[in-house]
Amino acid sequence: MNRCNLSGLRVLNTRPRAQADELSRQIIAAQGQVIAFPTLDIQASDEAWINQLPDLNQVDQAVFVSSNAVTYAADRLASHWPERILVSAIGPGTARSLRQHAFRVDAMPVEADSEHLLLLPSLQQIKQQQILLFKGEGGRPLIADTLRQRGANLTELSVYRRSQPLITPDLANTWWQDKAVDIILVTSQEALHNLFAMVGHQNISHVQRIPCLVVSPRLAEAAQGSGMKTVVVSRIDQILETLHQFNKGLDHGQ
User: Fold this and answer.
1) Does residue 200 contact residue 169 with C-beta atoms inside 8 Å?
2) Average of per-residue pLDDT across 146-162
3) Considering the chain, what is the average pLDDT of its residues?
4) Does the domain made of 10-40+167-248 have the CATH classification 3.30.420.40?
5) CATH value of 43-162 in 3.30.43.10, 1.10.10.10, 3.40.50.10090, 3.10.450.10
6) CB 150 within 8 A of CB 126
7) Is residue 14 within 8 Å of 185, Cβ to Cβ?
8) Distance (Å, rounded) from C-alpha 24 to C-alpha 27?
9) Prediction pTM value
10) What does DSSP assign to residue 154?
11) CB neighbours of 221 closer than 8 A, spacing ≥ 6?
């Protein structure tokens, strides 16, 4: 992390506030600048999901698809969580959250996305296994559909919900029109969709000309389909290094 030089780089961080903070601190420590512009709000769902829980002593595996899923579920589970349950995390951030809540992490894919999660050996031969899937409301059905196709007895638990933050339209105008942003960080399709909804129609063409850093080829396709002219792809655990390489190609007027 210390070898990354982001001096002069201005990053628009669209991650939800809780997820944005650590990366923003790392960018600032590398001499970069951060503009916080969360395009998702994360809130706990109602607690009806607790009533959907089966007998935890009969559960074989649990899958957490985000750190938010851990944040909004772990405290309700920790006191009576059986050690025998095999726990999978979708990526390093989710794994870190699990360990912070004293959960053991048994499996994690090499890349933090649904497709690589489904390649985990522990999720292949799962016929008749009782599996819990901790997730947000809505979202992609790929994980749930695939686990059911493989024969799992799956319980989906939607423990949080996402919404579009409110913003005063004039707040962001100068960011785009005065070229105050060098690169936009986007980590989900919903965040990308909300970005365009929040900036105002008069700013869309400005936003489309700003390079966009995304964390998967699938998200890159969505960004290109939204009209983004320059799309940079990074693994989520290599964002700082990717920003460093990007910054090396900028002039910054020097």
Assistant:
1) yes
2) 97
3) 91
4) no
5) 3.40.50.10090
6) yes
7) yes
8) 5
9) 0.80
10) E
11) none
